[in-house]
Amino acid sequence: MINLLTSNFGAFLTAFGYTVLSSIIALIASLILGTLFAILQIVPSRIARGIARIYVEVFRNIPLLIIVMFFYLVGTRVIALDGFTAGTIGLSLYTSAFIAETVRAGINAVDIGQTEGARANGLSFSQTLRIIVLPQAYKIAIPSLGNQFINLVKNSSILAFVAGGDLMYTANNVAAATFDSFNSYIIVGIFYLIITLPLSYYMKYLEAKTKGLAKEDS
C-alpha cells in the first residue's frame, strides 16, 4: 500500500484538493440555500411556502446520482459544464434540501414567546428572524447540521461518475492502472477520514460548547 501511495502521491493529493474544494463550495452553498428555503417554508405566503416545499421534496426524494448526472448531461450541452462543476452543483442542491428541513426544525423549536416578544417590541419579521430566531435555530440544529456536513463530504464521491477529479475518481483510475483495487480504496478511505474526523470532532465541540452556554444562561 505504501508503494502504491508514494508512486501515485501527486494524483491522490490533487484529488484530495478537488474533494476538499468541492465539499467546501457545496457546504457553503447548501447552507445558504437550505436556510433560504427553510425561511420560505415559514413565511406568511402560501405561494412561497409551496415553492419551498416543492424544492425540498423534489431534491430530497431523487437519488443524488440522478441529480448530478442531470446537471452533467444538460450542463455540457447548454453551457459546457465540466464534471467538477456539475457534480458540485448537484451535491449543493441535494444537500440544501436536507439542510432546509434541519434549519426549519430548529426554527420551530425556538420558543414562540421570543418571537412574539420581539414583534411586540417593534422588530420586523426579518429582524426578528435574523436577530432572535436564526441564531438560536442554528444552535439547536448543530448536531443534525454536523451529520449533514459529514454526509456531504462522503457524498462528494459521486463526482467520480462525472469525471470530477475527486478522490474516488482517482482511486478508480489508479486501481484500473495497477490492478490493485484493494489498496487504492483503502488509501482513499484514509483520505476521507482526514476530512471527516476533524469535522466530526469540531461539530461535537460546538455542540458541547453550545450546551455549556445554555446551562450558564439558565
Q: What distance separates the N and C termini?
A: 53 Å
User: Cα-atom Rg, whole angstroms?
Assistant: 20 Å
CATH architecture: Orthogonal Bundle
Detail the poorly predicted runs. none
Level-1 CATH class name: Mainly Alpha
The ordered H/E elements are HHHHHHHHH
> How would you sum up the major sheet?
none
Count of folded domains: 1
Considering DSSP H and I runs of 4 or more, what fraction of the residues is helical? over 70%
Q: Which geometry do the CA atoms define? A: flat
The CATH superfamily title: MetI-like
CATH topology: MetI-like fold
Helix/strand structural class: mainly alpha
- Enumerate how many helices there are, as a single number: 9
Counted beta strands: 0
GO cellular component, one term: ATP-binding cassette (ABC) transporter complex
Protein name: Glutamate transport membrane-spanning protein
Subcellular location: Cell membrane
Family: Belongs to the binding-protein-dependent transport system permease family.
Describe the structure.
This protein is mainly α and 218 residues long. The chain has helices at residues 2-7, 9-40, 46-60, 64-78, 83-109, 112-120, 125-155, 167-178, 181-217. It has a single domain, classed as MetI-like (MetI-like fold). Helix 3 crosses helix 5 (83-109), helix 5 (83-109) crosses helix 7 (125-155) and helix 7 (125-155) packs antiparallel against helix 9 (181-217). The mean pLDDT is 88.
Please tag this protein with its features.
flat; 9 helices; cell membrane; mainly alpha; single chain; transport; MetI-like fold; 218 residues; transmembrane; 0% strand
